[in-house]
């Protein structure tokens, strides 16, 4: 089927470039099931061209700018993205089916990330080391790694791209972005806007394609670091391949995050938090609150409210203002939603609501799935152990703190957790004991440019956001300088 929508080349060294082999692939609008947009299906030679452009810029035009100037250009890029947020959001909603309002908000928010890290660009400092030998000056330099490969998923393309690119560029590196083949358009637009903002050509490059392009980026000997956001299985494979050549990785992987509701919780707020945590983005977010543990004294009341609200969620086209939940991004994700719910029921779970594909009038070919709640499960039920990445909530009652702590920590993931209670002594006690990189108390899905984010256990390695994110993109050099003219005997140890 011919593709509607634009045709994109790779963005390399400031130019739109066709693939060396001439191969292309077609995107899909998940709301209609129709083809949308044509993109380069990149191979190793295409990736190499992008890496060479990035390497040249890293030691040339980008390195020749002062840190202050680089920071100001990052801020200008953020302003450009915010000015074009509507265009970027429509591209993303058309390709991944998430709500236009969410994609627009993310495109506007990344300005804050680029302003923040732009401001940190000239705050990167070394240290003078006090040595016993007073004649020796020893100091450290904190220098960029070089070319950074950024591999981005389809669920929040602009947001996740900037979360990695902002600290990488602030540290003086250059980047090659490999977006998901599901959402390739916005990354190319971001690269174009970078150059409109004054960032030199070659600093931000984009190669599109499937697994072959990603593999070529991971394996490229001139790529010093890989930033990957996606499944834990893919993250393990990337870390192994990068580690084979001693390249470092920052990995933001899957999650199976719990929302814990104690008996004294603000119930209305907790219900809203659980709903937004799993259904607001159709469950297609790594921090989805896909497990709810509710104290047995209020369990029935909370379950009833959740079911009532879930049944009332309006499914529809993500560009429509009245839509509250869009489709799954791909047929593969839609099928995974179905199979995971079937497995949960086979293992003893019971449907409280949903559990089927949804048919939306006028969008009959769209990839829609009903908001789904499953209860009555044992702790080892696959729905309570494995990431679905869809609008599927597992809910379970608990009796006491020790029990719910064991349940919450009882998965291989550790990305985030939510706590709902008016007892702040308990909340802070629990926050220390939960095995999660982020803990929210009486709120959920809150992120900020200056607060570190990342996972424990199988949910990843390293941190993005916050000042410590810069450390992921710098290497330290120690410089020794003898200031004395005294001639040293080469056979006498210097101490």
From TrEMBL:
E.C. no: 1.1.1.257
Ranges where the Aldehyde dehydrogenase domain occurs: 23-479
Similarity annotation: Belongs to the aldehyde dehydrogenase family.
Active site (record annotation): 252
Domain of life assignment: Bacteria
Annotated region (Disordered), positions in chain: 1-36
This protein's record includes keyword Oxidoreductase: yes
Class of the enzyme per the UniProt entry, highest EC level: oxidoreductase
Reactions this protein catalyses: 4-(hydroxymethyl)benzenesulfonate + NAD(+) = 4-formylbenzenesulfonate + NADH + H(+)
Residue ranges with Polar residues bias: 25-35
GO molecular function, one term: oxidoreductase activity, acting on the aldehyde or oxo group of donors, NAD or NADP as acceptor
Protein name (record): 4-(hydroxymethyl)benzenesulfonate dehydrogenase
Subunit description: Homodimer.
Keyword Oxidoreductase assigned: yes
Keywords: Oxidoreductase
UniProt source species: Ramlibacter agri
Function comment: Involved in the toluene-4-sulfonate degradation pathway. Does not discriminate between the sulfonate and the carboxyl substituents and can also be involved in the p-toluenecarboxylate degradation pathway.
Pfam family, one: Aldedh
Biased composition (Low complexity): 13-23
Gene3D superfamilies: Aldehyde Dehydrogenase, Chain A, domain 1, Aldehyde Dehydrogenase, Chain A, domain 2
């Amino acid at each position: 089927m011919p593709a509607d929508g634009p045709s994109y080349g790779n963005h390399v060294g400031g130019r739109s470039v066709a693939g060396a082999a001439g191969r292309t692939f077609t995107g899909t609008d998940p709301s209609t099931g129709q083809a949308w947009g044509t993109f380069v299906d990149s191979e190793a030679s295409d990736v190499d061209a992008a890496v060479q452009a990035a390497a040249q810029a890293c030691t040339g035009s980008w390195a020749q700018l002062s840190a202050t100037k680089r920071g100001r250009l990052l801020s200008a890029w953020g302003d450009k993205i915010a000015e074009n947020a509507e265009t970027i959001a429509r591209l993303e909603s058309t390709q991944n089916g998430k709500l236009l309002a969410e994609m627009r908000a993310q495109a506007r928010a990344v300005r804050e990330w680029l302003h923040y890290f732009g401001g940190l660009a000239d705050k990167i400092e070394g240290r003078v080391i006090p040595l016993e030998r007073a004649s020796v000056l020893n100091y450290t330099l904190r220098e960029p790694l070089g070319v950074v490969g950024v591999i981005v998923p389809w669920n929040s393309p602009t947001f996740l791209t900037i979360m990695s690119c902002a600290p990488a560029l602030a540290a003086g590196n250059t980047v090659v972005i490999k977006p998901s083949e599901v959402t390739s358009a916005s990354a190319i637009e971001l690269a174009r806007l970078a150059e409109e903002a004054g960032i030199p050509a070659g600093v931000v490059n984009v190669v599109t394609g499937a697994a072959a392009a990603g593999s070529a980026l991971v394996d490229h000997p001139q790529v010093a670091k890989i930033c990957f956001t996606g499944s834990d299985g893919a993250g393990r494979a990337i870390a192994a391949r990068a580690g084979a050549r001693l390249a470092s990785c920052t990995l933001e992987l899957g999650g199976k995050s719990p929302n814990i509701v104690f008996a004294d919780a603000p119930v209305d707020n907790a219900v809203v938090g659980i709903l937004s945590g799993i259904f607001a983005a159709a469950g297609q977010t790594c921090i989805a609150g896909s497990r709810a543990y509710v104290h047995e004294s209020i369990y029935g009341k909370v379950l009833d409210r959740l079911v009532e609200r879930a049944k009332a969620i309006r499914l529809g086209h993500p560009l429509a203002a009245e839509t509250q939940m869009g489709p799954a991004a791909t047929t593969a994700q839609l099928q995974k939603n179905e199979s995971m719910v079937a497995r949960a029921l086979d293992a003893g779970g019971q449907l409280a609501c949903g559990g089927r594909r949804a048919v939306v009038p006028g969008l009959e070919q769209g990839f829609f799935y009903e908001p789904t709640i499953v209860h009555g499960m044992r702790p080892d039920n696959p729905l309570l152990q494995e990431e679905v990445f869809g609008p599927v909530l597992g809910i379970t009652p608990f009796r006491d703190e020790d029990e719910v702590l064991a349940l919450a920590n009882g998965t291989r993931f550790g990305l985030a957790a939510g706590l709902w209670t008016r007892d702040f002594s308990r909340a802070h006690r629990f926050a220390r004991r939960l095995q999660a990189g982020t803990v929210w108390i009486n709120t959920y899905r809150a992120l900020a440019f200056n607060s570190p984010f990342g996972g424990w256990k199988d949910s990843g390695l390293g941190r993005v956001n916050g000042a410590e994110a810069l450390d992921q993109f710098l290497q330290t050099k120690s410089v020794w300088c003898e200031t004395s003219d005294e001639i040293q005997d080469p056979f006498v140890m210097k101490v």
